[in-house]
């Protein structure tokens, strides 16, 4: 290690490692097939964070706990908040222009400003590799939430161990504390990855051990703990090659590859020496500069990629322009925001800086929240839901949507184009006739029966496949559970003068495998649709009808026994006379194989019209 300033533990080669990590992440996010595990660059950042923060605290001595905590947090505020706030402000505005209903994205942005976007994404059951995450311009802020939560805990460990006060054996105390906590975190990481991988990916307790490894390697190598082991004997170039090889592992090896990359990164940091080839490469001034702007690069690369997915898409010919834009915005962020705020020094004003950071975070978070809650599609530049005809023709009724994600899609389509007094009791994965414990908290049918009013319309919608329709046959056990449920509920509905409508199954279409440019709805800012949008193999309508005819006939006979129980078939709405495809005439009707695309005004109009006709027929026949 070269250390020209005896009062600094700065190692420029670590910025070189940062550069490598952020480049790996950017490559993966542009095209995961090129570097399948490039996302592990974030795990490299975690190890570096643990090492660098401990190195930084090692050159500081404090005897006063309040001064120590205030100094620590004001440095974190100056380092993280300004660049993040700048990014969130700009990308929130762009998101409001190009994303029609970005509420959940603004919720991610708002939570990122309080260091909690990882928690929000974990409890929204969001998969890091899922479509919604790819389209969310703020998904990547989860890693900042992990680091900020680590920084909330770590200074207390530093103080308790005596490391901040430079007490005797303090390094050993800190080492033992971190070893204990990281062991618990590592066990939890393995357990949760095997049982519930989404929160395992996002939450700090399952990531603590990664930053702790950075702490451990600093204490091990710089404070002479286990000094008998000499890392300098390990050739760094071999470790570098092993790290690159790990980044090419398939995603399904994520547990092994994460553990491997963390250990290799720690060994690389410890083994780098001045005379080594890799050391000199990582200290190249251009590579170091990429490392210095890596925080801004990390922020802006994802935002620009996500906005590109909503607009022009990502193709070989767009990537050079997108990379240039990412670099320009990162340099602006680093030079004008990061550096300006990071090196502001206001003696005796630590608490003021922390307070200003909190206030500014709340302001930016509130700004994003307001865009999502009150303005919605006000600033959207594309085709809007105009609230023109067709409208809900039965404004004297309450509409109560009950079901899983299919019910939620119907509720969104109705709300976006119609004057509906609508209560949405649909949740993803919730089967109303056989609910899981978490679903019972959402809806209590005994209470609902009491609260029903005259002319209420209950609409039940769910995914029949793998529940009642299994392969090409009917699961009669599941079907009987559903009819038993309705046998018990329908008398109460009838007594209150309400009606129940059960949506029949709609076709399952073939998947749109786009990879990038994930929206198939033409707008002026999305002039070129991905060719794959219109090249999906169609599903023959007659094959679908053949598959569902027995179920539909059974349900028709059942509905005839209950004068206030009706069936709703939306197949004519989402299919032509002969075929069913997810995209037709530059309009998108499905967002995957079975979920409707709720961003389509045409589909919303058609669903409203279809429901109006059904209810009109019901009331005229009474």
Q: What's the quick description here?
A:
The chain is an alpha/beta fold and 622 residues long. It is built from 24 helices and 11 strands.
Can you walk me through this structure?
With 622 residues, the chain is an alpha/beta fold. It contains 24 helices and eleven strands. The strands form four sheets. Strands 2-1-3-6-8 form a five-stranded parallel beta sheet, sandwiched between helices. It has a two-stranded antiparallel sheet with strand order 4-5. Strands 7-9 form a two-stranded antiparallel ribbon. The longest helix is centred in the N-terminal third of the chain and has 34 residues, at 65-98. The chain is elongated and about 85 Å long.
Blueprint (SSEs and pairs):
Elements (H helix, E strand, L loop, with lengths): L11 H19 L10 H18 L6 H34 L4 H10 L4 H7 L7 H5 L6 H20 L8 H26 L1 H6 L5 H15 L13 H11 L7 H18 L5 H6 L2 H8 L1 H17 L8 H24 L7 H26 L22 E6 L1 H11 L5 E6 L10 H4 L4 H7 L5 E5 L7 E2 L2 E2 L1 H20 L3 E5 L35 E2 H20 L4 E4 L2 H4 L4 E2 L2 E2 L2 E2 L12 H21 L1
Parallel strand pairs: 1-2, 1-3, 3-6, 6-8
Antiparallel strand pairs: 4-5, 7-9, 10-11
Helix pairs in contact: 1-2, 1-14, 1-15, 2-10, 2-12, 3-7, 3-15, 3-16, 3-17, 4-5, 4-17, 5-7, 7-8, 8-10, 10-12, 11-12, 15-16, 18-24
- Outline the biggest β-sheet: 5 strands, parallel
Average pLDDT number: 88
> What percentage of residues falls in helices of 4 or more residues?
55-70%
Described by its quaternary structure, the protein is single chain
Name the overall outline.
Answer: elongated
- Please identify the structural class as seen in this structure: alpha/beta
* Number of strand elements: 11
Strands in their spatial order, largest beta sheet? 2-1-3-6-8
Residues in β-strands, percent: 5-15%
Total number of helices: 24
Radius of gyration: 28 Å
- Uncertain segments of ≥5 residues (pLDDT<50)? 1-7
Measured between the Cα atoms of the first and last residue, the distance is 87 Å
């Amino acid at each position: 290690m070269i250390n020209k300033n005896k009062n600094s533990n700065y190692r420029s080669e670590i910025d070189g490692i940062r550069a490598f990590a952020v480049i790996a992440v950017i490559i993966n996010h542009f095209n995961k097939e090129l570097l399948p595990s490039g996302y592990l660059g974030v795990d490299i950042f975690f190890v570096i964070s643990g090492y660098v923060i401990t190195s930084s605290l090692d050159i500081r001595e404090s005897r006063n706990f309040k001064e120590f905590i205030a100094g620590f947090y004001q440095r974190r505020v100056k380092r993280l908040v300004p660049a993040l706030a700048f990014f969130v402000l700009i990308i929130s505005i762009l998101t409001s222009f190009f994303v029609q209903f970005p509420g959940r994205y603004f919720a991610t942005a708002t939570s990122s400003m309080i260091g909690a976007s990882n928690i929000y994404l974990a409890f929204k059951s969001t998969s890091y590799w899922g479509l919604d995450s790819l389209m969310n311009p703020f998904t990547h802020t989860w890693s900042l939430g992990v680091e900020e939560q680590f920084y909330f805990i770590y200074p207390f460990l530093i103080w308790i161990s005596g490391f901040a006060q430079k007490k005797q054996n303090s390094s050993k105390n800190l080492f033992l504390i971190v070893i204990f906590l990281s062991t618990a975190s590592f066990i939890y990481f393995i357990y949760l990855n095997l049982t519930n991988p989404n929160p395992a990916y996002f939450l700090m307790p399952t990531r603590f051990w990664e930053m702790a490894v950075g702490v451990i390697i600093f204490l091990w190598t710089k404070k002479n703990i286990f000094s008998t082991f000499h890392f300098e004997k390990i050739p760094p170039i071999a470790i570098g090659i092993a790290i690159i090889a790990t980044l090419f592992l398939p995603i399904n090896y994520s547990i092994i590859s994460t553990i491997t990359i963390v250990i290799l990164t720690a060994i690389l940091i410890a083994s780098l020496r001045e005379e080594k080839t890799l050391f000199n490469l990582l200290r190249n001034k251009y590579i170091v500069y990429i490392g210095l702007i890596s925080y801004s690069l990390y922020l802006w690369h994802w935002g620009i990629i996500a906005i590109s997915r909503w607009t022009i898409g990502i193709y070989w010919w767009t990537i050079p322009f997108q990379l240039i834009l990412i670099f320009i915005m990162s340099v602006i962020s680093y030079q004008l925001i990061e550096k300006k705020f990071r090196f502001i020094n206001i003696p005796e004003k630590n608490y003021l800086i922390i307070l200003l950071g909190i206030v500014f975070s709340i302001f930016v978070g509130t700004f994003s929240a307001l865009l999502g809650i009150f303005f919605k599609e006000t600033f959207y530049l594309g085709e809007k839901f105009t609230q023109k005809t067709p409208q809900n023709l039965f404004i004297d009724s309450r509409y109560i949507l009950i079901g899983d994600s299919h019910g939620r899609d119907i509720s969104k389509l109705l709300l976006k184009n119609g004057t509906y007094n609508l209560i949405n009791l649909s949740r993803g994965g919730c089967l109303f006739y056989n609910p899981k414990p978490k679903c019972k908290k959402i809806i209590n049918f005994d209470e609902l029966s009491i609260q029903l009013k005259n002319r209420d319309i209950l609409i039940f919608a769910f995914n029949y496949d793998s529940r009642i329709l299994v392969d090409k046959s009917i699961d009669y056990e599941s079907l009987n559970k559903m009819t038993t449920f309705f046998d018990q509920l329908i008398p109460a509905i009838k007594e209150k003068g309400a009606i129940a409508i059960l949506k029949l199954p709609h076709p399952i279409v073939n998947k749109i495998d786009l990879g990038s440019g994930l929206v198939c709805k033409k707008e002026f800012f999305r002039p070129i649709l991905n060719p794959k949008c219109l090249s999906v193999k169609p599903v023959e309508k007659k094959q679908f009808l053949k598959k569902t005819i027995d179920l539909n006939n059974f349900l028709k006979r059942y509905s005839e026994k209950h004068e206030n129980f009706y069936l709703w078939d939306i197949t004519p709405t989402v299919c032509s006379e002969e075929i069913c495809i997810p995209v037709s005439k530059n309009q998108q009707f499905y967002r995957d194989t079975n979920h409707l695309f709720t961003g389509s005004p045409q589909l919303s109009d058609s669903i409203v019209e279809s429901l109006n006709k059904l209810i009109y027929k019901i009331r005229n026949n009474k």
